[in-house]
Amino acid sequence: MVCWSVGVMERGKMGPKRQLWVLYIAIVLGILPCSSHAGAKVTGKLSVYVVNYPLKYFAERVGGEHVRVVFPGPADEDPADWVPDIKVIADYQKADLILLNGAGYARWVNRVSLPRSKMVNTSAKFKDQYIRTKGAVTHSHGSGGEHAHEDAAFTTWMDFNLAAKQARAIAVAYGRKRSTLKNTFEKKIIELEKDLFALDRNIKVLVSNNQSQPLIASHPVYDYFARRYGLNIKNVHWEPDQVLTDQLWMELQKILKTHAAKWMIWEGDPIQESIAKLKSVGINSLVFNPCANVPQKGDFLSVMQKNVKNLAVAFE
Amino acid sequence: MLDSLYIAWKYISFNKLKTTTLVACIALISFLPMALQLLLDESERQLMSRAAVTPLVIGAKGSSLDLVMNTLYFGDEVPELISMASVERVENMDLAMPIPLYVRFGTRGNPIVGTTPDYFEFRGLIVAAGRQMALLGDCVLGAKVAEILDLKPGDSLVSSPENLFDLAGIYPLKMKVAGVLAKSHTTDDLAVFVDIKTAWVIQGLGHGHQDVTRLKDPTLIYKSSESNVAATAKLYHYTEITKDNIDTFHFHGNLGQYPITAVIAVPYDEKSGTILRGRYLSKQETRQIVKPREVIDGLLQDIFRIKNVLDAVISVVALATALAIILVFALSLRLRQREIQTIFKLGCSRLTIVRLLLSEIFITVLISGVFCGAMIFTVNQYANEIVRMLFIR
Question: Which of residues A178, A200, A222 is at a domain's end?
Answer without folding.
Answer: A200
